[in-house]
Design brief:
Largest sheet: 6 strands, mixed
Shape: globular
Oligomer: single chain
Order of helices and strands: EEEHEEEHHHEHEHEEHH
Distance between the termini: 40 Å
Number of helices: 8
Length: 238
């Protein structure tokens, strides 16, 4: 199968099981959100896919190839986190261009790619702005542009909007969705926010206590939750 395959994956920290036998497939160009409360295992699963956490069991494949033993930097996955992890000593252009610097591109090709991505995320003309002068929302837009710049075959986003206020999160969720669709990027988006997951993803996977309870389109989750626990978490039952 093309795209991402997670097969019966488990992650353990000492005697604690963080991810318990999760199986999930993400098709090329699809955006899947992992939704659940704090400590449910969603970020641990994301980190295992990235290669940042060892598997206690199961397999992670991409385009049919097993990623076992393949280091993070060779997986060609993009990563975006809550704090953006921008370089404060680089201006916006050089932050976005960071992932392009090792690729066989001319300076003009890099500059054109940076300009196009900043336009995509609504920051046209910000190339020379200093990162510390940007608002939180602007910094996350820069982080998204930087993550998309090398054209990753999979983008992994771990609670990228959770540090922002509610109104800004709602607006940026739609913008993240638009950017992923426009670039045709395959993505896994981790969040604890129901509305955010629905705004960003084609399908949402609900996790609890390390297990994946249901994966479905947002509307299907609301109309046909697979269990009482899914319904409770989504606020559909008391």
């Amino acid at each position: 199968m093309a795209g991402l395959e997670v097969r019966d994956v488990s992650v353990r920290y000492g005697g604690t099981t963080a991810v318990d036998g999760v199986t999930l497939a993400v098709e090329p160009g699809e955006v899947v959100a992992l939704l659940g409360p704090s400590g449910c295992g969603k970020s641990s699963l994301l980190r295992a896919v990235a290669g940042l956490e060892p598997l206690a069991g199961g397999r992670v494949l991409y385009d049919g190839a097993d990623l076992a033993g393949l280091p993070v930097h060779k997986r060609r996955f993009g990563l975006m986190f809550q704090d953006g992890q921008l370089f404060p000593h680089r201006d916006v252009r050089r932050n976005v261009a960071y992932g392009l610097e090792t690729l066989p591109l001319t300076r003009q090709e890099r500059d054109e790619r940076v300009t196009a991505l900043l336009d995509l995320v609504g920051l046209a003309g910000y190339e020379q702005r200093s990162v510390p002068t940007l608002s939180g929302g602007e910094q996350q837009r820069v982080a998204l542009a930087r993550a998309l710049a090398p054209r990753p075959r999979l983008l992994l986003l771990d609670e990228p909007l959770s540090a922002l206020d509610r109104q800004l999160r709602e607006r940026l969720a739609g913008e993240v969705r638009a950017a992923l669709v426009e670039t045709g990027t395959t993505a896994v988006f981790v969040t604890h926010d129901h509305a955010e997951a629905s705004a960003v993803a084609d399908r949402v996977g609900v996790m609890d206590q390390g297990r994946l309870l249901q994966v479905a389109a947002p509307q299907e989750l609301r109309t046909a939750p697979a269990s009482d626990r899914v319904a409770e978490f989504l606020g559909l039952r008391a």
